[in-house]
Amino acid sequence: MLEVQGLAKRYGEVDVFRDVTLDVAAREFVAIVGESGVGKSTLLNCMAGLDVWQAGRVVVDGVDLATLGDEGRALLRREKLGFVFQAFHVLPHLDVAQNVGLPLLLLGRPNAKRVAQVLHAVGLEGLGHRLPQELSGGQLQRVAIARAVVHGPKLLLADEPTGNLDPQTAARVMEVLRAQAQESGAALVLVTHSASAAAQADRVLHLRSDGVGA
Ligand SMILES: Nc1ncnc2c1ncn2[C@@H]1O[C@H](COP(=O)(O)OP(=O)(O)OP(=O)(O)O)[C@@H](O)[C@H]1O
Q1: pLDDT tens, 36-78?
Q2: DSSP SS3 for 69
Q3: Which residues are in the ABC transporter domain (predicted)?
Q4: Given the CA of residue 45, which atom of ligand 1 is nearest to it?
């Protein structure tokens, strides 16, 4: 589902990482760990085509991102990707159901029934009309997960999604994230500092400045 080959990222003369090679199969759950600043978020952004790199390839579902322009990447993201951020990134002026329904709207396939189904699946049934400011951190992260999976993405990328949450809420959010990845049949790539979250993955990869290792 996802292939990264020999990826190198530099800012000016400074290497963030080089020679990063990894494969993630459909339905697989891979955790990426590594010390702060080693480039985990940057790597995830490259996987999503949201950042640029200096060498190597990123192939999502058979499509080499280098063959796409900005618009092509945006379309691929819209169709095939779900992204969950640590800071939720929900839109404050839209209610919960509107936030979750946004990817479907952008695809020209609005579907209130599907939104209700996903809200139920993440345990937020009945909260569709709340504004984000009326939710707890754990609830907001579940909104972000619901929004990331509502369109049935093939690849789900999560950047430290439990970082702002207490351990109990974090465990619940991880449960929902894994269940939703499975439900969508999506490959899940999780960047995390949490040992307990990483321990749930099929594989844990350590990112270092000179590549990834087990
Ligand atoms: N725009 C930029 N210009 C220069 N350096 C940058 C820029 N953005 C990020 N960096 C550097 O790139 C490196 C990788 O950052 P990144 O956020 O990907 O690391 P990370 O492993 O996710 O860190 P953390 O675990 O602390 O979130 C860091 O050293 C950071 O300072």
Answers
A1: 999 999 999 999 999 999 999 999 999 999 999 999 999 999 9
A2: coil
A3: 2-214
A4: 18
Distances (CA, A) of 136 to 124, 132, 133, 144, 171: 11, 8, 8, 12, 15
Residue 82 within any structural domain of the chain: yes
Residue count (the chain): 214
What ipTM is given for this predicted complex? 0.95
100: in domain: yes
163 belongs to a structural domain: yes
Retrieve residue 108's tokens: 């020209």
6 falls within a domain: no
Domain of 98, in residue numbers: 27-37+75-213
The number of domains in the chain is 1
pTM summary value = 0.93
Helix (H, G, I), strand (E, B) or coil at 185: coil
Domain with 201 in it: what CATH number? 3.40.50.300
- Ligand 1: distance of its center to the CA of 37 in Å? 5
Q: Compute, in angstroms, the gap from residue 119 CA to the centroid of ligand 1.
A: 33
38 lines ligand 1 (CB under 6 A): yes
> Which is the closest atom of ligand 1 to the Cα of 12?
4
